[in-house]
Amino acid sequence: MLDSRIFPRISLQDFERRKAEITTQLVDAATGVGFFVIVDHDIAIDQIDHMFEGGELLFALPDDIKAQNAFSREKNVGWEKQAQIRPSTGTPDLKESIQLQFSQTSMCGKWPSDSDAPGFQADALAFMRQCQTVSIMIMSCFAQALFLPSDFFTRAHDVSSDKSQCSEWRHPTPPKGPGGVGWWVATCR
């Protein structure tokens, strides 16, 4: 049962010196447990909390304000709310989210204005760059484990393309339908 498993905590401290050891730990966790937690990644908890706080402020805005940056399926960017329908039940997922990209072409007109969400764009871009740095480290380990060039996955996840994405989600508590069913929320956080 998933709840009884302990997710391995993998430290990225002293990454260059410990890369072979970190690679082994990542592969063991990915192929054994299926999950892992990255620690010592140089993204301060204050920065992570700040990004979540910025998201909460954004999601607290009236829907008509957020809708000015409505989701574009073509570019896979922007804000959406209850737009995904669960195939198994036909009911909407209560999630609201904003999909972000580094690509300024894709993001044109999709960032909340600074007057509506002060600093959100600058903070999100800075946070995304930090996450990308950590991602590159992890992807290089998996490439090494598969005997590929260390930049193999990094090249495939080029942040300047419109395929690299960061999402921030909010999952409100679902209301109870008749008999306590009717709404389903797929949660990841």
How is this structure best described in words?
It is a single chain. This protein is of the alpha+beta class and 189 residues long. 38% of the residues lie in helices and 11% in strands. Helix 1 links the parallel strand 1 (9-11) and strand 2. Helix 1 (15-32) crosses helix 5 (120-145). The longest helix has 26 residues, at 120-145.
Can you describe this structure in just a few lines?
The chain is an alpha+beta fold and 189 residues long. It contains six helices and five strands; from the N terminus they run βαβααββαααβ.
Relative helix content: 25-40%
What kind of sheet is the major sheet? Answer: 3 strands, antiparallel
Order of helices and strands: EHEHHEEHHHE
| Low-confidence sequence ranges | 184-189
Cα-to-Cα separation, first versus last residue: 19 Å
Oligomerization status of the protein chains:
single chain
Number of E-state strands? 5
Report the radius of gyration as a whole number of Å. Answer: 19 Å
- In one word, what is the shape? globular
- What structural class do you assign from the helix and strand content? alpha+beta
What is the mean predicted local confidence, pLDDT?
Answer: 85
Strand content: 5-15%
Strand order in space, largest sheet:
3-4-5
Number of helices: 6
What descriptive keywords fit this protein?
disordered C terminus, 189 residues, alpha+beta, single chain, two-stranded parallel ribbon
Ordered list of secondary-structure elements with their pairings:
Elements: E1 9-11, H1 15-32, E2 37-39, H2 45-59, H3 63-66, E3 78-81, E4 96-100, H4 104-107, H5 120-145, H6 152-156, E5 166-170
Parallel strand pairs: 1-2
Antiparallel strand pairs: 3-4, 4-5
Helix pairs in contact: 1-5, 2-5
